[in-house]
Amino acid sequence: MENSAAIEQAPVRTKKKKKSFFQKVNENKTYLLFVLPGTLFLIIFFYIPVFANIVAFQNFQYSEKGFLWSLLTSPFVGFKNFEFFFKSADFMLVLRNTVGYSLTFLLLNFFFAIFFGIVMSQLRNHRALRVYQTSMLFPYFLSWAILAYFVYAFLSTDKGIINHWITGGGGTAIDFYNAPQFWPFIIIFMGVWKGIGYNSILYFATASGIDPSYYDAAMIDGANKWQQIRNVTLPHIMPVATLMLILNIGGIFRSDFGLFYLLPRTSGTLINVTQTFDTYIYRALTTTNDIGMSTAAGLVQSVVGAALIIITNLIVRKRQPDAALF
Amino acid sequence: MRKKRHITSEEIRKFSYGTNVFFNIFLALFAISCVAPFLFIVVLSLTKESDITLYGYQFWPKHWSFGAYEYLGSMGGQLMTSLGVTLFVTIVGTIINSTFVSTYAYAISRPNFHFARFFTVFALISMLFTPGMVPTYLVVTKMLNLSDNIWALILPMSFSVWNVLIMRTFFKTSVPEAIIESARMDGASEFRTFRSIVVPLAVPGIATISLFTTLGYWNDWFNALLYTSSSNIIPLQYLLVKIQNNIQILSQQAAQGGAAQIASQLPTESMQFAVVVVATLPIALTYPFFQKYFVKGMTIGGVKG
After folding, report:
1. Where in chain A is the domain with CATH 1.10.3720.10?
2. With an 8 Å Cβ cutoff, is A322 touching chain B?
3. Which of residues 175-234 of A touch B (CB under 8 A)?
4. Mean pLDDT across chain B, nearest whole number?
5. So where does this one cross the membrane (chain B) (predicted)?
6. Average pLDDT for residues A298-322, to the nearest whole number?
7. pLDDT for A238-293, tens place per residue?
8. The pTM is what?
9. B252 is in which domain, residue-wise?
10. Which of left, alpha, beta for B77 (phi over 0: left; psi -120 to 50: alpha)?
11. Are residues B126 and B164 in the same domain?
């Protein structure tokens, strides 16, 4: 779009004398005023923080002369902060948990979103469908701060409904908040459950938009329901699915902070199965106040994330150009 | 005749009647699992405190009580403060975000804005790379000096590139170039054109991004976790996080008021669930009406530019 705009303007510009930069600024001053607040935001909350990542290579010392001055004058220590992070026992744990959970979520969200999307698109009763969809979206709109209480009402050791059933049946209560073996399942279940309503919308919309004549043709060829889904519905959904996959692969080194930090009610015994990059960085910052090392961990996370997006996009652009992101 | 043909062809895609019943039951059960936990929380907030101590959390208690809400209402205190903080942050934040997002998106959607391409890329880069929690924390606390300041809850979310993309698509597709052109012919300034012609046409788009933003602010506890310590700027969601660790926070103010005796009798168990209900109810009651805007925003956002 921007390209075509430039082309449209080109002949006009060649007629007149070439304008200086300041003339252009002057002519566009209202638009420049329009982008000013957003630009300031991006500078303060994106570009300066990105630059501030150099503290990962520093022994950061805050000086009274201000933040930017401290950034420029703190002594550089090379890759020491990274070494410290990579050599710590936490690194392998955090890497295993973050990537393990992310891949599980990637596959399960992908599967369930497509499954629910297709099922909903083939349902006969529209009014019931709307009720299902609205209900399924509800958890998506709630924060983990709230959902942590939902979980607690079920899992609390002395009062939770699950232990109520267990003890009622003669069993002994399970101390869920000190039993790490259950948490991978709880976390994965809750993460998938929260997102299904939202994730399936896109596939539902895509599947509903497929021209019915494709199904007509498939039926004339004698395809049963399953064959229709496999040969008509799925191929139509694939471009959207690929796009979602690229977007999500970039997030493999990231985790949903609230899910991992709030759901276990910050229980120390669960740390082995709930510590991810994000909770680790937060804890390193707030408990040990190790700015250099926590920034280094964050930088690893961001660089890998950006690299993954670029690489997957390159691959997709080669194989399926119209599904690529950029 | 044509209409009938259309209906039959739509039918083709659908399940057979038997399969349809099966998947209806399946979806209904899943839908119930999404709503039931909240109803359970509502029940718990209305359960008599002694019932909870005796029998634990139950789907259907023996004794009902409004005690938790009465205490929360009469004590005022922390809950009211937090509700006020959340409302302030949500309203001010949403106004700032939707205003600045709209102006930014409008400018970069205009073919006659000479720097449109530069500012599009300038914003898009931020979607590829995350600056990270710690550098952002340093900027907010050390550069802007906003620790324990209510603006630390507003400013970090006061602009959103994702919203810019939605609005840019909206301006390009829903505001006809001819109308903007004719306004300019009539001698309206760029600013006037935007305010009196473009904004009224873009109301559905602005509603969509405002809803995303409102929800974001209402549900935010992370910025509060990072930047606040005083109790008078704790938003509702962060209050819930704090109650998790220390249920007494709700009764502390009553105790300070010289009513330590009352504080020990407070229905703290049902009160925590009552706070959950207060934080959830506004969303539960309004989102079904705004759902279509969310769905729209999501599908618009998916359009690449």
Report:
1. 80-323
2. no
3. 193, 196-198, 201-202, 205, 210, 212-213, 215-216, 219, 225
4. 87
5. 21-46, 83-106, 118-138, 150-171, 192-218, 271-290
6. 87
7. 888 887 877 788 889 999 999 999 999 988 899 999 999 999 999 999 998 899 99
8. 0.89
9. 2-75+246-301
10. left
11. yes
Mean pLDDT score, B91-110: 96
Which A residues, 71 through 110, put their C-beta within 8 Å of a C-beta on chain B?
A: none
Residues B175-185 have a mean pLDDT of 87
Total domains in chain B come to: 2
Contact A38 B101 (CB under 8 A): yes
Where a domain ends, among B227, B254, B273?
B227
| B282 lies in the same domain as B209 | no
Of the partner residues B32, B130, B304, the one whose CB lies closest to the CB of residue A305: B130
Least confident of A20-24, A82-86, A152-156, B104-108: A20-24
User: What is the mean predicted confidence (pLDDT) over B94-119?
Assistant: 95
Task: For residue B240, tell me if it sits in a domain.
Answer: no
Q: What pLDDT, on the 0 to 100 scale, is given for residue B304?
A: 42
Q: Are residues B190 and B252 in the same domain?
A: no
Class of domain A80-323: mainly alpha
User: Are B103 and B13 within one domain?
Assistant: no
Sequence-separated (6 or more) residues with CB below 8 Å from residue B51: B58, B61, B62, B63
What pLDDT score was predicted for residue A2?
Answer: 43
Average model confidence (pLDDT) for chain A?
89
Residue A178 above 90 pLDDT? yes
Distance (Å, whole) CA B65 – CA B47: 5
Query: B68 with B81, same domain?
Result: no
| ipTM computed for the complex | 0.89
Q: Which CATH number belongs to the domain containing residue B87 in this structure?
A: 1.10.3720.10
User: Distance, in angstroms, between B170 CA and closest chain A CA?
Assistant: 14
Say yes or no: B84 and B64 in one domain: no
Contact A63, A70 (CB under 8 A): yes
Q: Is the pLDDT of residue A125 over 60?
A: yes
Q: CA dist A53 to A3, A42, A288, A296, Å?
A: 33, 16, 19, 8
**pLDDT score recorded for residue B262:** 57
Do A179 and A95 touch, CB atoms closer than 8 A?
Answer: no
Same domain, B223 and B83: yes
CB-defined contacts A:B, below 8 A: 297
DSSP per position, chain B: -HHHHHHHHHHTTSPPHHHHHHHHHHHHHHHHHHHHHHHHHHHHHTB-HHHHHHH-S-SS-SSB--HHHHHHHHH-HHHHHHHHHHHHHHHHHHHHHHHHHHHHHHHHH-TT-TTHHHHHHHHHHHHH----HHHHHHIIIIIS--TT-THHHHGGGS--HHHHHHHHHHHHHHS-HHHHHHHHHTT--HHHHIIIIIHHHTHHHHHHHHHHHHHHHHT--HHHHHH--SGGG--HHHHHHHHHH-TTHHHHHHHHTT-HHHHHHS-HHHHHHHHHHHHHHHHHHHHHHHHHHHHHHHHHHTS--
- Does residue B108 sit in the same domain as residue B168? yes
